[in-house]
Automatic annotation (TrEMBL):
It holds the Pfam family adh_short. The keyword Oxidoreductase applies. This is Short-chain dehydrogenase. It comes from Tsuneonella deserti. It comes from the Bacteria. The lineage of its organism: Bacteria, Pseudomonadati, Pseudomonadota, Alphaproteobacteria, Sphingomonadales.
Length: 300
């Protein structure tokens, strides 16, 4: 197998690496020379319970294959603890793969505070906690690769996943801000929306379809986004079953009433077709690019 792209000397934290996608990511990094922190709390798919076996078994698997790995059995809510494990075992951290996740699917009118807050805590707060604990180290060394995990269910919306969608797009917002803050320090932050069979998809309405999607088909993109040769940031990618594509924002050309002109609800209704006309779209990728349209309106 071609192994041109390697991670020798790099320390990689993979959260939620005791199973599913995270395990595949960890195996891939270790097989290419990385020192891997295998983090996993070992609870169930709804975030209940804990077990050391999840992280430990993947560490054993990696070592049996001749790789280097250490277990971190704590929740991603304890980012400093996970980063401390990396420091104690390997002296630093270079790459953070934020992957840990749970599901508490339920329609919004039945969603409890616990359903809402546990999903925010694991996905959004956990991603924040691990990333923020690693951030000063990455800044000091002027090197870092961070991969966030969002979901198509959040990007496009899905019934019964209001808690998950909010958390997962929160992660995308975090990634976008950190991509800007990390840019000058060579800390690149990219996000994937994967699709793969795992215990999280066993109960999905389209589980039969998902069963065909191998989790190992997601790891090559994660590896590329985390490699020193990859040099772009703020990307969002859909990945699964051997398919990889990038997503971006698209804005209709819109209609400019002009900043100086008074306009009404009736004017908006009258111009609606051109406001939502995507025939000549724009693709702003920064706040400054986004504001150019508003700025044009000021001069009309
Ligand atoms: P999985 O359930 O197989 O793996 C998630 C891992 O995270 C588990 O091993 C679990 O023990 C661990 N985990 C859960 N809470 C944790 C915590 N507080 N601290 C540390 N570890 C914790 O599920 P899968 O599918 O591999 O999910 C990986 C990521 O991909 C998740 O963020 C998920 O939301 C996301 N995702 C997966 C999709 C799919 O099609 N499988 C679709 C879209 C997103």
């Amino acid at each position: 197998m071609d192994q041109t792209l390697r991670y020798d000397g790099r320390v990689v934290i993979v959260t939620g690496a005791g199973g599913g996608l995270g395990r595949q990511h960890a195996l891939m990094f270790a097989s290419r020379g990385a020192k891997v922190v295998v983090n996993d709390l070992g609870g169930d798919a709804k975030g209940c319970g804990a077990s050391a076996a999840a992280a430990d078994s993947v560490v054993e698997e990696i070592r049996a294959l001749g790789g280097e790995a250490v277990a971190s059995r704590t929740s991603v809510e304890d980012g400093p603890g996970i980063v401390q494990t990396a420091i104690e075992a390997f002296g630093t951290v270079d790459v953070v793969i934020n992957n840990a996740g749970i599901l508490r699917d339920v329609s919004f009118h039945k969603m409890t505070d616990e359903d809402w807050s546990l999903v925010q805590r694991v996905h959004l707060n956990g991603t924040r906690s691990v990333t923020q604990a690693a951030w000063p180290i990455l800044r000091d060394k002027c090197y870092g690769r961070i991969v966030m995990t969002t979901s198509a269910a959040a990007i496009y919306g899905n019934f019964g996943q209001a808690n998950y969608a909010a958390a997962k797009l929160g992660i995308l917002g975090l990634a976008n801000a950190l991509a800007e803050e990390g840019r000058s320090k060579n800390i690149l932050v990219n996000t994937i929306a994967p699709a793969a069979a795992s215990r999280l998809t066993e109960t999905a309405s389209f589980a039969d379809f998902m069963n065909n999607l191998r989790p190992e088909a997601v790891s090559p993109l994660v590896g590329w986004l985390a490699h020193e040769r990859y040099n772009d940031t703020k990307g969002l990618f859909e990945v699964g079953a051997g398919y990889i594509a990038q997503l971006r924002w698209e804005r209709s050309q819109g209609h400019c009433f002009g900043a100086a002109r008074q306009f009404t609800v009736d004017d908006v209704a009258e111009r609606w077709e051109s406001i939502v006309d995507f025939s000549s779209p724009e693709h702003p990728s920064t706040l400054a690019e986004s504001l150019t349209a508003i700025s044009r309106a000021l001069s009309v």
